[in-house]
Each structure stands twice: as C-alpha cells, then as structure tokens.
Design goal:
The radius of gyration is 13 Å and the shape is globular. It has one domain (4-119): 3-Layer(aba) Sandwich (Hypothetical Protein Ychn, Chain: A), CATH 3.40.1260. Helix content is 33%, strand content 20%. With 120 residues, the protein is α/β, with parallel strands linked by helices. A 5-stranded parallel β-sheet has the order 4-3-2-1-5.
Length: 120
C-alpha cells in the first residue's frame, strides 16, 4: 500500500450527508491503494450496528450501507471508539462487517506514521 488515510466520522442519522460523504471519501482512499481507516466516534458509532445505515440514502450518492460494504470489501477498516460505544450501550454482537471496537491508542498507532486525515 502507498501510505495511509484516515476519515474520522462523528455523525450518523443526525447528519446523514456528512456520514455519506465520509464513506465516499474513504472509498476513494481505499481505491487509491491507501491503507484506509474510518474511525467512528461520538454519534458515528451508531453506524457500527447492523441495520442502522439501511435507511440512509442521500440524493446523488449510493446508499450508505452499500458504501460501507464496498469500503470493507476493498480492504478498508472500521474502528469504533470504545468509550463512545459503551456510553451509548450498543451491542458488541451486532457489529457490521469489518468493524472493530478500539481504544484511542489503536487510532494513534494507525495515524502515527504520517497519516493524513479528514473529519466529518
């Protein structure tokens, strides 16, 4: 892989436009042969749950569920903020494919090697 790229996503159904665009950009990164990561945090952690993204479809874009699936199938990783996940009492047994619950140290480890990032 030629470098890394991280997208930090703080939104879910509270801002479906940002959630969608974040995964559009993440798909572009993974398609550009970047070791790509989406970090779900704050309200974005809800996207880690199966079924949550199913109804999100912004006009002019592919459905969010499809964008997420394509991202992980292409080798992208989804990290889910452990404290944010726990605060919202979400189900560890209901994670979408490719999602991993992590602490901040895991994100720092990924980004410590000259990793550009975007936040939505």
């Amino acid at each position: 892989m030629a470098g890394k790229f991280c997208v930090s996503l703080t939104c879910g159904k509270d801002n479906t436009d940002k959630a969608t665009v974040a995964f559009v950009v993440a798909n572009a990164a993974v398609a550009s042969d970047k070791d790509s990561l989406v970090f779900l945090n704050i309200e974005g952690v809800n996207l880690s749950q199966k079924g949550y993204a199913d109804s999100i479809h912004e006009e002019g874009f592919a459905p969010l569920k499809e964008l997420m699936t394509n991202f992980t199938k292409a080798g992208g990783k989804i990290y889910v903020c452990a404290p944010c996940f726990k605060k919202r009492k979400l189900d560890e047994n209901n994670l979408v494919e490719g999602a991993t619950i992590v602490g901040g140290a895991k994100l720092v480890e990924f980004m410590s090697d000259n990793c550009p990032s975007l936040s939505y």
